[in-house]
Amino acid sequence: MRYLPLTPNDRSEMLATIGADTVDDLFRDVPDGVLNAEISGLPAHASEMAVERHMKKLAAKNLSAADAPFFLGAGAYRHHVPASVDHLIQRGEFLTAYTPYQPEIAQGTLQVLFEFQTQVARLFGTDIANASMYDGSTACWEAIAMAARITRRDGVVIGPIHPHYLSTAKTMAKFTKDEIRELSPALIADAGDDAMIDMIDDKTSCVVVQYPDILGRIPDLAKIADAAHDKGALLVAVVTEPVALGLLESPGSLGADIVVGEGQSLGVGLNFGGPYLGLFGAREKYARQMPGRLCGETVDADGKRGFVLTLSTREQHIRREKATSNICTNSGLCALAFSIHMTLLGGEGLDKLSRINHARAVKAAGKLAAIDGVELVNEGGFFNEFTLRLVGHDAREVALRMAKRGILSGVALSRLYPDSLDLSEGLVVCVTETCSDEDVDALVAALAEELA
Amino acid sequence: MNAPNKSGWKPEMGEAGSGPVAKTASGDAGLALEEALIFELGGTGKCGVDFDEEPGDVSPALAKFARKAPVDLPALTEPEAVRHYTRLSRQNYAIDLGPFPLGSCTMKHNPRLNEAMARLPGFADIHPLQPMDTVQGAYEVIEQLADWLCKLTGMEAVAMSPKAGAHGELCGILAIRAALEARGDAREVILVPESAHGTNPATAAFAGYRVENIPATKDGRVDLQALKDRLGPDVAGVMITNPNTCGLFERDMKAISDAVHAAGGLVYCDGANFNAIVGKVRPGDLGVDAMHINLHKTFSTPHGGGGPGSGPVVLSELLAPFAPIPFVRRDEKGRLRMVEERGAKDHLPQTFGRMTAFHGQMGMFTRALTYMLSHGVDGLRQVAEDAVLNANYVLRSLEGDLDAPFGDAGPCMHEALFSDENLPDGFSTLDIAKGLIDEGFHPMTVYFPLVVHGAMLVEPTETESKAGLDRFIASMKSLTARAKAEDESLKSAPHYAPRRRLDETRAARKPVLTYKGEGVPPGTPSLSEIGGS
Ligand SMILES: Cc1ncc(COP(=O)(O)O)c(C=O)c1O
Predict the structure, then answer these.
(1) Cα A339 to the chain's mean position, in Å?
(2) How does strand B336-339 pair with strand A385-390?
(3) Is the pLDDT confidence value at B529 over 60?
(4) Which of A164, A355, B424, B425 has its CB surrounded by the most CB atoms within 10 Å?
(5) Which residue of chain B comes nearest to A405, CA vs CA?
(6) What residues make up the domain containing B349?
(7) ipTM for the complex?
(8) What homologous superfamily is domain A65-81+347-451 in, according to CATH?
(9) What is the full DSSP assignment across B450-516?
(10) Average per-residue pLDDT for chain B
(11) What is the CATH number of the domain that holds B346?
């Protein structure tokens, strides 16, 4: 077996050293009848070639984004990732290291985390950021939990965020004291700022606002932040598309107290939903309430600058049942990928990338909205993602038929909101730098035919 | 060029000379390369990405939301970036460099076939919300992996979406809570052994339970009698790690499960240590109701310097109806479908809900399935046997040098536990760990589990050769001998690593979590000078 270095000879020598006759003597604490129970229906070992064949067959059954005009977003975005990113994250020293518990021989990972935290904080406009969470949705409910610890209140107002994020938060709320009140989206231009503000009261711990929201609309964070702060509540901003922040004012600078997000857009890729990258930033004064790992600067015994995991008295391995979160393994390698991609871009590159996304989306939206029976919902502006109303059609059906034509046209809102008839005409379309003019033209032509 | 001159090598060309070596001007030392931060190296006016088009203007509708200036982030061009990260990578230890015997973490070799398969565009470049007919192969990966996990554990069902072990624990505990609530009997307490990983009590508390400790017996296992005495109508369940964090098989696991069930509770098993028993023991045969499996441990997906992981949770028949959404099922026509919010009412009406966006760590699923297919069920059994053999070899080779608190109680499983009992006053577990760094090894897990004083938990895994283990053992013997000889230099180890011991107190007292300095212009003094020494 190619992954097992012990030879039969090694094994007998080692058993002799141990003083055991057979390896099963080492399993003698396992009750009879349980040890070596027959496991049926699974194949025996296979060569690299055979496994490759099996996996490639499965992969070939999927329509990959590269093989179709592709316009899906809604929490997972397709951007071009420079080749050097994937090369660098596959360096064994990054790929095959553990969490940096021994800082003297983990400065590579730790310095990357320090750089990553700084990049995320600057992008979000927050004082600090942590070393990553699982993904945007889990970062979002951790932010809700953190707000409750800070404010000692239980009320949670949630705007039109990604419904999976909302579902996740609701699952958690069943087991905590949080009382969630939500504002469901409607196919209108108004992002619901005033409606959210009206829902804030003296019991509100935080208002959770996605920026841009699930329909691609841009809420007025500054206004919501003021209203929340007036009532002693925190503003939690959720960013599912970090590239948007190349163009939009940062949530922190608009008054958000905690900013969380999905970092998959940069460096990570689509990967069918995971692994992704939870981003988590906050005001410095809340550092000790943060979930997850934090990397901090210090010096070594020679006075040289170095980095360590710090403030670990918040964490499960020290605080156990009193920890701020149970998270242990996070998304380290995805954070590295994000950080490399961000380093290649820099602020100016991100600015360019975001403007290209925006301009392409605006152009595409114009063409799509010109189709008979198609209305653009986002009159108040959008970044690279917008919602179309396909008047008189279930968008899910349309998306299916478009897929049959080999076009991945968008995310139908009825997939995300199966119970909402009002949203069933909605199709969320995302246009990034990867969508060529020909792709857009193909989408426009096919959609026009489908709706005709 | 480095070629010798025509007259050939002269001995005095490098061997002569004595006295202290001058510090280098660069701050580097041969292949020991220092590296500044991107904020000190990078700048504006350059970019590592080219674009084919000019950026457009901001649409009028968006103008009021637009930022006034680009985000203040430095850029590096590709050659600079490749160098930056490559130089940084060399300051890391990794399994690819040598043994990484972190107990409880299962740092085994990460096969590169896994990486190649996960990167096939048919897996890596598909969107989680694509129409289901366009991603049948991806659903099939999930279905096949689920089948492996159920069969290997002898369990009824598996929830695939948890993102890591701790998230899996939460999944299991929430399923338990949902099942008990469905009976109208939520209960209040989860019992957890003192030796448990910190995520166990943290998880139980997050799910709204009060955590109480279960004591251990002298031989490092759950005290069955004490557990039975504590069981009652307020106890929702137990969280037992098996094999446990002392590296021992919980002999009484079946009796524990029976007792908990008889008292109306449910059994969560922390499966982080499944590597010891994969293919040999099915936890389902021991009465377990839920168990997470760290694909990033047992099934070889890389740890990536902290993640990502993946923590599917196998569930008993009793808990399966409460599993989270989404999950994959085959419809009447044999097509695979992802049951999400839509369809849950028909196919899983009692689900406790969703735990994360989308459907779990696909990139880890492809790697883990690749690994399982490579080993096969026969190979996986060999994995467990070799992992246990390696650990016992370490245990028996070192028990004369270090105290092995449970060494007399019989064989260990996949990890060997030692305490600081035999170290002389003034020498600690930390000194041995840091000494190992100088020896060229990653240290074992230290000070965990908490039930053993100065714990050193060594998990070699099955991917270490005998020769590799012998080298590790020799180094451990040398280090304990040095401690016993009161070699003071051990207390300041490591001496040969990129950094000496770091000041963690200073880091925590006044945390510096982001770079605050001014950008340093290119051609800056080396990092060691910036660092102050
Ligand atoms: C015994 C045990 N339980 C739970 C966990 C948590 O798993 P994860 O880090 O994947 O969240 C770990 C590993 O860190 C562990 O060793």
Answers:
(1) 14
(2) unpaired
(3) no
(4) A164
(5) B134
(6) 115-368
(7) 0.98
(8) Aspartate Aminotransferase, domain 1 (3.90.1150.10)
(9) TTSTT-EEE---TTS-HHHHHHHHHHHHHHHHHHHTT-GGGGG--SSSSS--B-HHHHHHS---S--
(10) 93
(11) 3.40.640.10
